[in-house]
C-alpha cells in the first residue's frame, strides 16, 4: 500500500507555514499595540480634561458669567483658579446699548453664578437676567450690595450706575462681592477672603495716588466735560466738577441745547480740555469743540477716557487698576496737573496716553 505523504513534511511546506505564522503573530501584536495605545491616549485625554475642569478642592469648577470688563476683572481676582470666569462685554462695548445675542442668553442661563452691575447699566440685559433658570440667589447685582446713601441719584428717579469711578466705593463693592461668592463657594471662602483683602489694599493705594493727581490740578481748572455723565462718582470722590453731553445713559442723543450749554461753559470758565470716551460716539464731543472754536475759544480734545469699558486685554489699561490709572493721569495732564511718580503703583505703572 502506498503511504500518504504528510503535506507539511517537506522543507518547502514547513517554511511557508512558519512564514504565515510569523505574519499572523506580527499583525496580532500590531493591532494589540494600536488598541492599547488608543486606550491610553483616550484615558490621558480624559484625565487631562478632568484635571483642567477641577478646582483646588477637587470639585468641578463653577462657571461664572460677568457683564462688564471691570466686573470680570474683579471676580477673576477673587476666585482665582477655582472657577471659570467669562465676560460677555469686551473692550469698547457700551453696556447701555448692548443687545444680548442668543448665545449670550444661553450662557447667562447656563451659568452657575452671574455677576452684573445693576442700577440699569445693562438695561437691555434686564429681561434675560430676570429670566435665568435656577436659584436667583446665584445672581449678584453689585449696585444692590451698596448702601443707597452712597449712590448718586440720576435722571428719572434711578441711581447712577457708574459706581466703579470711585475707587473707594468699588473697593467696598469688592468686599461685598467676595462675601457673596464665599457663600456660593464655601469650600473656597478662606482663599476668596485673602484675595479680596490683598486686592483692596492695592485699591487703597490707587485711590490715594489718584487723589494726589487730582489735587495737583489748579482748583479753577478742575472741570471735566465728557461724552456722557459717567464721572459723577469720580467728581464727588476727587473733587472735580463734571459735565456730560449726554446723561448717565447713552441710549438717547443729546439735544442741541445741551451742546450749546457746554460751549457756553467752556467760554465762560475757560475750560482747557474736553474728553472723548472709548466706548461712546465721538460725534457730540466734536460738536462741542467745533462750537467753541467758532466763538474763538480753543479747547484741547486729544484726550480719551475709559468710562464704561476697560482697554484691550493686552494693554496696560486692560484691567481695572490700569484703567483708572489711565483716567487719573489723562485728566491730570489735560487740566494742567501733574502725574505722581511715587508710591507702589510706579513699579508696574503703564504709560499715560494723551
Automatic annotation (TrEMBL):
Molecular functions per Gene Ontology:
metal ion binding
- Subcellular location(s) per record: Cell envelope
- Key words of the record: Membrane, Metal-binding, Signal, Transmembrane, Transmembrane helix, Transport
The record's annotation in Pfam families points to:
ZnuA
One GO cellular component this record assigns the protein to is:
cell envelope
Among its keywords, does the record have Transmembrane? yes
> Could you tell me which InterPro entries the record lists for this protein?
AdhesinB, Bact_metal-bind_prot9, Lipoprotein_PsaA-like, ZnuA-like
Annotated GO biological processes are: cell adhesion; metal ion transport
Q: SUPFAM superfamilies attached here?
A: Helical backbone' metal receptor
Claim: Transport is one of the keywords in the record: yes
Q: Which residues cross the membrane?
A: 20-38
UniProt main location, coarse: other
Q: Which PANTHER family match?
A: HIGH-AFFINITY ZINC UPTAKE SYSTEM PROTEIN ZNUA-RELATED, METAL-BINDING PROTEIN HI_0362-RELATED
Family note: Belongs to the bacterial solute-binding protein 9 family.
| Protein known as | Periplasmic zinc-binding protein TroA
Gene name of this polypeptide: troA
Amino acid at each position: 500500500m502506498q503511504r500518504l505523504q504528510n503535506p507539511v513534511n517537506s522543507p518547502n511546506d514547513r517554511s511557508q507555514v512558519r512564514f504565515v505564522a510569523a505574519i499572523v503573530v506580527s499583525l496580532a501584536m500590531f493591532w494589540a499595540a494600536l488598541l492599547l495605545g488608543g486606550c491610553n491616549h483616550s484615558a490621558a485625554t480624559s484625565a487631562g480634561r478632568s484635571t483642567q475642569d477641577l478646582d483646588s478642592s477637587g470639585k468641578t469648577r463653577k462657571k461664572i458669567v460677568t457683564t462688564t470688563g471691570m466686573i470680570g476683572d474683579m471676580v477673576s481676582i477673587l476666585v482665582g483658579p477655582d472657577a471659570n470666569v467669562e465676560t460677555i462685554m469686551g473692550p469698547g462695548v457700551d453696556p447701555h446699548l448692548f443687545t444680548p445675542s442668543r448665545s449670550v442668553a444661553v450662557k447667562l442661563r447656563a451659568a452657575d453664578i452671574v455677576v452684573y452691575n445693576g442700577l440699569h447699566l445693562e438695561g437691555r440685559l434686564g429681561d434675560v437676567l430676570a429670566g435665568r433658570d435656577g436659584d436667583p440667589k446665584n445672581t449678584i447685582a453689585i449696585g444692590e450690595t451698596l448702601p443707597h446713601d452712597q449712590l448718586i441719584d440720576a435722571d428719572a428717579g434711578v441711581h447712577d450706575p457708574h459706581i466703579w469711578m470711585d475707587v473707594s466705593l468699588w473697593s467696598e463693592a469688592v468686599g461685598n462681592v467676595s462675601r457673596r461668592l464665599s457663600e456660593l463657594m464655601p469650600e473656597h471662602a478662606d482663599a476668596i477672603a485673602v484675595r479680596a483683602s490683598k486686592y483692596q489694599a492695592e485699591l487703597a493705594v490707587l485711590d490715594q495716588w489718584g487723589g494726589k493727581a487730582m489735587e495737583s490740578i489748579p482748583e479753577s481748572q478742575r472741570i471735566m466735560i465728557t461724552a456722557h455723565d459717567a464721572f459723577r462718582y469720580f467728581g464727588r470722590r476727587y473733587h472735580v466738577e463734571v459735565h456730560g453731553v449726554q446723561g448717565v445713559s447713552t441710549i438717547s442723543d443729546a439735544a442741541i441745547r445741551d451742546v450749546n450749554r457746554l460751549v457756553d461753559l467752556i467760554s465762560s470758565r475757560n475750560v482747557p480740555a474736553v474728553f472723548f470716551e472709548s466706548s461712546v460716539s465721538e460725534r457730540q464731543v466734536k460738536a462741542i469743540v467745533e462750537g467753541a472754536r467758532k466763538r474763538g475759544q480753543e479747547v484741547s480734545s486729544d484726550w480719551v477716557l475709559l468710562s464704561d469699558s476697560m482697554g484691550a486685554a493686552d494693554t496696560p489699561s486692560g484691567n481695572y487698576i490700569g484703567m483708572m490709572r489711565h483716567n487719573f493721569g489723562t485728566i491730570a495732564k489735560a487740566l494742567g496737573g501733574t502725574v505722581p511718580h511715587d508710591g507702589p503703583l510706579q513699579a508696574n505703572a503703564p504709560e499715560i496716553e494723551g
